[in-house]
Amino acid sequence: MPIYEYACTTCGKEFEKLVRQSSPAPACPSCHSVDLRKKLSAFSAITGSGASDFPGPCGSCGHPDGPGACHFQ
């Protein structure tokens, strides 16, 4: 299920919403309008051919994103 970014054309509020294809159109959480504009969103992906491309676990706490990820010094 993708997360979409929306901007409400009625009140200007910007928000994100997890949307299923079978879901009805979301409403603005601020004014409840359904007059929305879908924003262009950037996405990210992790690519790599092996485990050596990714940092190892943190030596202090074992956080899987590597040293400094948990800000535990």
From TrEMBL:
Putative regulatory protein FmdB zinc ribbon domain mapped to chain residues: 1-41
Protein name as it appears in the record: Zinc ribbon domain-containing protein
Pfam family, one: Zn_ribbon_8
Classification via Gene3D superfamilies: RNA polymerase ii, chain L
Lineage: Bacteria, Pseudomonadati, Pseudomonadota, Betaproteobacteria, Candidatus Accumulibacter
Domain of life: Bacteria
